[in-house]
Design goal:
Layout (H helix, E strand, L loop, with lengths): L1 E4 L7 H12 L17 H10 L1 E7 L2 E10 L4 E8 L8 H15 L4 E7 L3 H9 L3 E6 L9 E7 L3
Parallel strand pairs: 4-5
Antiparallel strand pairs: 1-2, 2-3, 3-4, 5-7, 6-7
C-alpha cells in the first residue's frame, strides 16, 4: 500500500474521479440531500487539490483510496475520504487517516474534524472506533431535520 500526495504532477484524474464515485455510490437513495461527490468532475477535482491537501493510496498499481484535507483555525477538516469498495476493510481508510493525523500535527493542529450523514450509522461506528466522537448534529441549508453529524478526534501532541 503506497500513499502519495496528489500535486501538480498527478495525471490520473479520471481514475481518481472513478474511485470517488465508486466509493460514494452506495449512498445513492440512502441520503438526502444527495452527496456532493456525484457532482464532482475531473476539473473540480483538479481545483479541489489546488485549495486542499490531497493524498491517495495505490495498491497493486491501482488507486484504492483518497482523502482531502483542509486546515481550519483549530483543526484539520477531513473531507472526501474515499475507499474503493473492493479495498474496504483492508486498512486503506485507516492509513489515510494516519496521514491526516500526521498532517494535522505538522501544521500544529490538535484535532481532526469530519462530517458524516445521519443515515450512515455504519460510518458513525467506524469513525468512533478510530477515536472520533460526535460533537454536533447539523442540517444542510433548506432542511429542518438533522442531515449530518460532526465528529472530532483530539490528537496527542
Amino acid at each position: 500500500m503506497t500513499p502519495f500526495r496528489i500535486d501538480e504532477g498527478f495525471a490520473r484524474w479520471n481514475e481518481l474521479l472513478d474511485l470517488v464515485l465508486a466509493s460514494f455510490a452506495y449512498m445513492e437513495g440512502r441520503i438526502d440531500p444527495p452527496s456532493s461527490a456525484i457532482r464532482l468532475t475531473v476539473e473540480s477535482l483538479v481545483e479541489k487539490t489546488r485549495v486542499e491537501i490531497a493524498y491517495t493510496v495505490e495498491n497493486d498499481g491501482r488507486l484504492a483510496g483518497c482523502i482531502f484535507l483542509r486546515p481550519e483555525t483549530d483543526c484539520l477538516y477531513v473531507g472526501k475520504l474515499a475507499v474503493l469498495p473492493s479495498a474496504q476493510g483492508k486498512g486503506v481508510g485507516r492509513r489515510l487517516l494516519d496521514i491526516a493525523e500526521k498532517t494535522a500535527c505538522d501544521l500544529g493542529l490538535s484535532a481532526l474534524r469530519l462530517e458524516t450523514r445521519i443515515e450512515l450509522v455504519g460510518n458513525h461506528s467506524t469513525f468512533a472506533a478510530w477515536g472520533f466522537v460526535k460533537t454536533a448534529e447539523k442540517s444542510h441549508p433548506g432542511f429542518t431535520r438533522v442531515t449530518f453529524i460532526e465528529m472530532r478526534k483530539a490528537l496527542a501532541g
